[in-house]
Amino acid sequence: MTREQAKKILELLPVIKAFADGKDIEYEYPEDCWVKVTIPFFDNSLNWRVAPEPLPKKLREWKPKEVPLDAWYTSKTDASRAMHKTQFTYMSNGQRYIILRDTDYSTNDLLRHWMHSLNQGKTWFPCGVEE
To answer: From CA 4, how far away is CA 17, in angstroms rounded?
Structure first.
């Protein structure tokens, strides 16, 4: 092994560690085209990288007609994960408000701080619509 080959192998160590930590790995083939692999072979003649993280999906507030009326809600930051069922909703100045445990929440509050479930807390979703 030459020093250049050893340097190339050392460059792979962060990629190998990322793979061991469960991240997706890609190699370049042909130029500027990255191929995701499930079982890497780490050929040091190829360029390897950790696959870039997907961009987060952009959410917008619910429109008044999109607010689920029979949903459960929980705070994104509440460690106790207490669930609150929608008591009722009302409109004010074109904004839908939801009453949870005697407190009014706008759809903007829900988008930023709450999650909702339509199956009594088995699965949770953001309080908004993906764009």
So the answer is: 21
What is the token pair recorded at 31? 């130029």
Contact call for residues 115 and 76 (beta carbons, < 8 A): yes
Q: Whose CA is closest to 85, among 95, 75, 98, 100?
A: 100
Give the whole-angstrom CA distance, residue 42 versus residue 90. Answer: 59
Instruction: Map out the domains of the chain as residue ranges.
Output: 3-50, 61-130
Q: Evaluate whether 64 touches 94 at the Cβ level (below 8 Å).
A: yes
Closest CA to 109 of 92, 96, 121: 96
Q: What is the number of other CB atoms lying within 10 angstroms of the CB of residue 61?
A: 19
Tell me which amino acid residue 32 is: D
Rounded Cα distance between 96 and 110, Å, is: 11
Mean pLDDT for the stretch of residues 13-22: 92
Phi, psi values for residue 69, rounded to 5°: -85, -25
Express each pLDDT in 26-60 by its tens digit: 988 877 788 889 888 888 788 889 988 876 778 88
Q: In whole angstroms, give the CA distance from residue 13 to residue 57.
A: 31
